[in-house]
Every structure is written in structure tokens, then in C-alpha cells.
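Protocol step 6 of 9: fold each sequence in the batch and record its C-alpha cells directly after the sequence line. For illustration, a two-sequence batch is reproduced in full.

Sequence one:
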Amino acid sequence: MIRKNRKLSAGNAKPGDIVIVNGLLGDHGAAILAARGDMALDVPVESDCASLNGLIETLLDVCPEISFIRDATRGGIATVLNEIAEASGVSIEIEEDKTPLRRQVKGFCEILGLDPLYLANEGKIVIVVPAGKSQLVLNTLLAHPLGLASSAVGKVGDWDAGRVTMLTSFGGRRIVDMLVGEQLPRIC
């Protein structure tokens, strides 16, 4: 249970904070798209639907300094990060190599020309925490069944307010914009 006066707003991120996710991203979106049967693609991925209240309660008990926590449902992690950057007036940079994606989801997205950062998640949260508390949060997540693939995916900065970028595996940077339209029809 979240305390009444607890503020976990998207406007709370500060330069130096760390962005953490609690596991593999995009499974739900890929599973739903594949299950619709519009394509002859077999994707061995299941939805990540999970009740997150117990995990969130544990995290907030262990680390009251968490400044933001939210599920990454519609619009995926990309949309959540853009909302944080805009509301807080900060920039966020994530690293492709630290962003947990199942190989099958990556391949599925490559075939369809989708960006997995925008795929819906039903059992994933995005957490923003001061750098000095990030290891505590990661250790707590990794000890929980819903956090076994958790990762610190990026950091908050002040170099370009409102902008989200990704440091690619090749050392380049790309802009991660707010989703325009919808990658998948809303079904839930």
C-alpha cells in the first residue's frame, strides 16, 4: 500500500538519478500481436501479465527515496521515459545493451519493423531512484520473482531537457520520441 502523502510523480526525476526496469520488455505486446493471427509468425513468447502491488510495496518499504514508479503498459518504456523527461524538465539516456529484451521479441520486432521500446508491457515497472540507492533497488528486485531480469537501463541528466536518447550497441545515439499514434490497437 502506498502512503497517502507519498509523491511518485513523473515530475520528480533529477539529474544523476538512475532508471531501472524490473525485467524483459515487450513480451506482452509481442504475444498479443502474434496471437491475433494476422501473420503467419510463430512467436514463442507469453504475455508478462502480473500483479505488481506486492513488488511495489516491497520496493517502497526498502527504499523510500524512490521518486517515480509506474507500469510501462501502453506505449511501452519509451512513452513512460518521455513523460518523465517532459514533466521533470530533464533528459534521459538509456543504453541499448542494458535494456532487457528477449531474443524472440527483438527478432519479431525486426521482422515487422516495430520498435520494442514502444511495445506494451503488463508486468513491468519503470523506477527512477537516486544513484546512491540504485544498487539497493536492483538487489531487492533481483531477489523477487517479478524482478529476476531487472536492469539499470539508463540515467537522468540535464543536457537536453525533455529529450530521451538511446546509446546504441554501436556507440551511436538515437532519439527515442514519444509514440505518435499506436503501434498496436488497444485491446485491454
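Sequence two, same batch, same settings:
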Amino acid sequence: MNNKYMIQDTRYKILITGGGSGGHIMPLEAVVQELKSDQTDILYVGSGNDIEKQMADSQQIMYKSVLTGKLRRYWSWQNLVDPFKILVGFFQSIFIIISFRPKVIFAKGGYVTFPVVLASWLLRVKIVIHESDVIMGLANKFEASLANKICVGFPLDNYPNLPLSKLVYTGNPVRHEFLIKSEALNSSLENSRDKKSETNSKSPLDHTRDKQIINPVSPITRQGGHKSTILIIGGSQGARFINNTVAAIMEELTKKYHVFHIAGKNDFEWLSKNNWSNYELFDFTDKISELMAKSDLVISRAGANSMAEIATLRKPTILIPIKESANDHQTANARVFEKNNAALVFSEDQLNPDTLLGIINTLMANKELINSMSQHIEEFANYEATKAIKVEILNLTK
């Protein structure tokens, strides 16, 4: 429990909740950063894990934890115990809410939110929830009927079963560094267009070139014989399939491309034993925005946060959804991009090393398709998602 950031006499008190994984905490942190720009006191209620405490400490906000159990779609002996944990967490949440007296609760998802939102509803505190994925998580599904507003990460037509009166399309919050890289990209594009306008009048080909991806911080992208650069994001969850598949073709890939590979900690050791040229391996990096800005193609899972970050930098993308994601929500996310010609989507069953190599080579050789994907994926870039969420939260304080 961290109480060193004492409550000040300010205008708004906002309680935020969510956690259990980086997928919930990262966008929650972005919202906290935005809320702090106004006169707000923020209390973060989490499940007690270290990543939550680190976020609260880094943002200099109060933090308290409650006991909670996981909501599962499958049988487990823990299903017999967890309802009692949730009940304890519910009473803890009531005490915290009565003590803090927030105007609004903002819940980002994760099982810790359930007792907090339930207690908030009972105490008649206004509730805003945010759903990143096309298919709602189990906690958010329960909480949707209790919420005053439901912010969503994809366009509203992807949520036909939710009450339209509550829905707000805000998009998914992205880390501040991605917005900075996006601004640099825009500046570089404008400079490129200005230079072209100073020379000859433009042909149709010039207009196509204007839409090409320009990487403003890219000494690596164009090194070694002007190789294009590919960013492969395996990540910590479900990385083994991607890592094994790309490792089998890495020798061929690195003959033509420079490769950044974020493999996750589990596969880092064996991958690091290879001596591929034009290859940079990471178990984890906090510089992913820089690597993505330098890249011409991204290969990634279809987590909503990753997709939002890719869209912000409008990178052509191959999405490979995690096969075992809850309710296959990653496939549902990916299909939205695919339907709008914003990404290529392949299931694990469709891919082997040779087919993936062929897809990459075909795509990289098709500049028209690359440019088209870049334009279409930008349609999903919500550069002011955090501000839109803040507006919904603060509107309920009135």
C-alpha cells in the first residue's frame, strides 16, 4: 500500500482500476498521464502486483490493492475459492471508495476491476469502462450493464450487442513516445512534399510517392546496401510460434532485409546463439517506438494495444493472431484491419517458414500495396484517444 502521495484540495477525485498484465496497465498509464494535466487527484486500485505499483510510483499517484479472484471461462479448482476472494475485494473496495470519495471510477479491464466496479455501482459512483478489443473481456462484459459510459477501441459497428447510448469510440490509448514518433513522421512527410513542390509540377507517380513511408529517425533502416527493415514482435505471450517460424528463414531474410526481432525472454537465449548478419535481437525493449519508426514492415500478434501503436506510425503489417487467445479475440481484432485493407492476416495454421518467407518477399516487392496498407491502417490511428477518454471521465464529474 502506497500512501506517500497525499490527497490535495483539488477539483476532481478519480479512482482508476485495472491490471494484471501490461496490456491493461500500459493504456491505463497513458490515461493517468492525461488526467494529471487537469486538476485531479488519482487513486489507483489494483491487485497488488509489482508492475501496478511501479506504474503508480512512476506517475506519483496513490495506490491501494484489493483481494480478487480471476473470472474464468473454464473449469479450475480455483473457481471454488475465487468467489470468496472477490467478496473480500468487494468489501475492501467499498471501504476505499467511501474513504476516497471519487467522482468517477475508470476501469480498464482485468479481473481486479470487477469488485471495484460493483462496489462503485452500489455506492452510486459514476463509472467509465474501456474495452480495447473487438470481443469484450469477461470482466468488462459483466461491468457493461453497470457503466455510465463504455469507451471502445474499434469503430462502433464492431459492438452490435452493446447499448449505443453508452458507447463512445475513443480508440486505444498509445504510449506518448509513439505520438512523438508520429509527429516526426508527419513533419518528414511535409518536408518531402515541400521539396517536391519547389521543383517540377507533380505527375501521378509523384502523388503516389508522397504517400510512401518515410522514417525520420532511420540510420539503420537504410544501412548495408539500402536494405529495407522488418520489425518482428513475438512478445512474451504466444511468442514461440513466431520465433520458431522466423528463425527457420532468418538466414534468407537477412540477406535481403535488416531485421529487428523482439523475441521475449523465453526464447532469447537460443536465438542469441545464432550469428545472423543484419539482425538485432531483443528479449524486451522500451525503445519499441524507435524500432517501429525505423521499420518498413511489422510482423506482430494482434493485441489491440500493439495494433493501435502500429496504426499510429502507419506501418504495413502482417498480423498473426494468437491461436489460444480468449474467445479468439485477437483474430476478431485482426479481421477488422483486414476487412479495411489495413493489414494482411494469417492464422498459425496457414503459415510455415516457406509460406511466410514468400508472403514477406511478395509484399515487400509490391510498393503499391505497401503504400495502400500504410494509408488504410492510419484510419485506425486515434491520436487523441487518451484525451477523448479524459473528456468522458471529466464530463461525468459535473
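Proceed to step 7 once all outputs are recorded. Observation for sequence two: The chain has two domains: 12-72+79-174+384-396, 225-379.
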